[in-house]
Write a structure and sequence with these properties.
The complex is a heterodimer of chains A (290) and B (161). By secondary structure, chain A is an alpha+beta fold. Chain A is built from four helices and 13 strands. In chain A, helix 3 packs across helix 4. The two termini of chain A are 27 Å apart. In chain A, 30% of the residues are buried. The mean pLDDT of chain B is 88. In chain B, helix 1 runs parallel beside helix 3 and helix 4 runs antiparallel to helix 5. Chain B contains six helices and no strands. The chains are: A alpha+beta (290), B mainly alpha (161). At the A-B interface, helix 1 and helix 2 of A face helix 1, helix 3, helix 4 and helix 5 of B.
Chain lengths: 290, 161
């Protein structure tokens, strides 16, 4: 038994077996998911006409607001493309996403993992970034046929390259094992970073796409006795509440994803297409999980 | 109608299935420390009261499946299960005569031992160790023992061979 533990921990030999057997595990999570599904169904079914009307109204208003923002976005995207052309920089890629639903939470209190209802059949792959409506949630670490496991950014074995949105200072955000805090690693004491700064993914490491919100800096402690700053940030994504997650396919690997939708509804003018060939197709798996 | 012996095996299989489902039932993140070790206490019950029905091989396989289910390193739960099962086999004749709360105390110790090995494996996997929190499941398991005893006793009496 000890041998098994050691082999499993220090080599990859048991990984293929785990992936195959994941199929046997999925039903258990589906069974435990039944009560929340019944609850969803109840909420959908036993709702009054007036409530529905009210909700409809609210959604329409929200849609209007978002559409206004999108109008601006179209012109901004076009402007961005022109500026990038001027700078000779490669084209920003639009990402496509696949909506997944959470079906289980890892019962191990020391690890932050969730199980989702998409697997290799739908095109999910190892190392795939996962978002919710508010920010980056984590990455896929195990893919079964119909379900996969997502490691959250707050897990103590996870780290993600980020940058401060305000000034572009780069850092690495590590999970602490606490759902509501990440800590930044090796930030020197004279770095310009303060509470309230938004940290977005920096795209370094080529695992997470650039520009998705990751966390907000909550506390910066300058201790003269220490070589580095202590920076605590709170994840933007609702790690313990979101039920609907988005699996991100960067354009280079979207080719054959059934049912994937485009994140940005705007098609940025024809000039976007003309320069898109200069994008870098490299996709290695550096960074991400330590 | 199934034969009584077969009936008992169905009951055992069913009890393990239920305990496996309970062991992954979603709880709020902060409450997960308090989840009793369902699989372990059901296994302990069968060893205490029907020592001939569950083999170590079965327990090993069960532990491995639980590892797979919970996504922890292979061998973590089976190691704990096998160690605890061995202690149970040595002590079941005495424990059967204990009063119910004394049995609970004994369960606390047994689950604590399993939690300890769990913690070792988790430590080897690079997880931060958690202080005294790892004993919470032992505590809740001990509290759950009377209920578990009542439920499984009623099941076995109904299907007694």
């Amino acid at each position: 038994m000890m041998v098994l533990v050691v082999v499993g921990l220090y080599t990859d030999r048991l990984e293929p077996m785990r992936e195959k057997l994941a199929l046997a595990v999925t039903p258990f999570y589906q069974i435990t998911d039944v009560p929340s599904r019944v609850n969803d169904w109840r909420k959908d079914t036993f709702v009054s006409h007036a409530d529905l009307k009210l909700e409809n109204e609210a959604l329409k208003t929200e849609l209007l607001i978002h559409q206004r923002k999108l109008q601006q976005l179209a012109s901004l995207a076009a402007e961005n493309v022109r500026l990038r052309q001027l700078l000779n920089a490669s084209q920003m890629l639009q990402d496509t996403v696949l909506i997944a639903e959470l079906i289980g939470v890892s019962p191990n209190p020391l690890s932050h993992k969730v199980i989702i209802n998409r697997g290799s059949k739908e095109g999910a792959f190892k190392g795939q970034p996962v978002l919710d409506a508010f920010g980056l949630m984590g990455q896929v670490i195990e893919v079964g046929e119909t379900s996969s496991t997502v490691l959250l950014i707050s897990d103590s074995t996870h780290a993600i390259p980020v940058q401060v949105n305000r000034n572009g200072v780069r850092a690495i955000a590590e999970g602490t094992g606490d759902l509501n805090s990440l800590s930044l690693r090796h930030v020197s004491t004279n770095t310009d970073i303060r509470a309230g700064d938004l940290l977005v993914s920096s795209g370094l490491g080529e695992r997470f796409p650039i520009g998705y919100p990751v966390a907000e800096v909550q506390q910066v402690v300058r201790d003269p006795g220490k070589a580095f700053l202590t920076v605590i940030a709170k994840p933007m994504a609702r790690l313990d509440r979101s039920r609907h997650l988005l699996l991100v396919f960067e354009n280079r690997d979207r080719a054959s994803v059934p049912g994937a939708l485009s994140v940005t509804a705007v098609e940025s003018s024809s000039s976007a297409e003309s320069v898109s060939s200069s994008s870098s197709p490299a996709s290695s798996s550096v960074g991400g999980a330590r | 109608m199934l034969s009584p012996q077969l009936n008992l095996y169905v009951v055992i299989a069913l009890s393990f299935l239920v305990s496996l489902v309970l062991s992954v039932y979603p709880l709020p993140m902060d409450m997960r420390w308090w989840r009793p070790e369902f699989v372990l206490i059901v296994a302990i019950y069968w060893i205490f009261f029907m020592p001939l029905t569950v083999s170590f091989t079965l327990l090993c396989a069960l532990g491995l499946f639980q590892d797979l289910l919970e996504g922890v390193p292979f061998g973590q739960h089976s190691l704990g299960l096998v160690i605890v099962a061995y202690i149970c086999i040595l002590s079941y004749q005495r424990v059967r005569n204990f009063s119910i709360w004394r049995q609970s105390g004994w369960i606390f110790v047994l689950v604590g031992i399993a939690q300890l090995t769990d913690n070792w494996v988790q430590g080897m996997a690079g997880r931060p160790l958690s202080g005294i929190q790892f004993l919470y499941p032992a505590f809740t398991s001990a509290l759950l023992w009377p209920a578990c005893l009542w439920w499984l006793n009623s099941m076995t009496h109904r299907y007694q061979p």
